[in-house]
Design a protein that fits this description.
Blueprint: H1 5-9, H2 24-27, H3 36-39, H4 45-48, E1 50-53, E2 57-61, E3 71-75, H5 87-108, E4 112-116, E5 133-138, H6 145-150, H7 159-169
Antiparallel strand pairs: 1-2, 2-3, 3-5, 4-5
């Protein structure tokens, strides 16, 4: 029996499709065993999607970003609540957040940012057990119909490529 494209794609219904097969890893539970923020620093920067490392905290790409360039600033120590951080950790999370904003402006030219920490699952924290600061670049017109209608976001660049560009622009200790 010979199959044609219509048989494989289903019956036309007037809707377009945006295929995002990379999301199956998330749906299937990949990267949900253990704490990904504790695991990432033990990987190479490329494999862990780490943009920068400090003494007490690090910056990595969000695997499921709201926007291109969505970064997370995490302390190395596995703590859930902002009040559990010591002074050095608070200072470095703040410093890395500021640097992330500066680098994103230089590399991607966003019009603004959303910054935030969701403290606890009830507040929206997907990984509530390990504190992380979101740094989400925003552009005028970046919110369109896709998230509302299709519950999908269109990202213009692969995470690894964004990580490479941001890491290359990150200032060194002497900068």
């Amino acid at each position: 029996m010979e199959e044609n494209a219509a048989d494989l794609a289903g019956t036309p219904d007037g809707f377009g499709r945006l295929w995002v097969p990379h999301r199956m890893a998330y749906i299937g539970g990949e990267n949900k065993q253990g704490c990904p923020f504790c695991r990432a620093p033990g990987l190479s920067d490329e494999e862990g999607l780490i943009v920068a490392r400090g003494s007490h905290a690090f910056v990595l790409m969000n695997l499921y970003p709201y926007n291109g360039g969505h970064l997370l600033v995490c302390p190395y120590r596995h703590v859930a609540d902002y009040t559990e951080l010591d002074g050095d950790e608070v200072a470095e999370v703040a410093h890395l957040t500021r640097t992330a904003m500066t680098v994103l402006r230089a590399v991607s030219g966003p019009d603004g940012f959303n910054l935030g920490m969701n403290q606890g699952a009830v507040a929206g924290a997907g990984i509530a057990a390990h504190l992380h600061q979101h740094v989400v670049p925003r552009w005028a017109g970046d919110a369109n119909f896709l998230p509302i209608v299709a519950q999908t976001r269109a990202l213009p660049e692969l995470l690894a490529d964004t990580r490479t560009r941001l890491a290359a622009a990150w200032p060194g200790e002497d900068d």
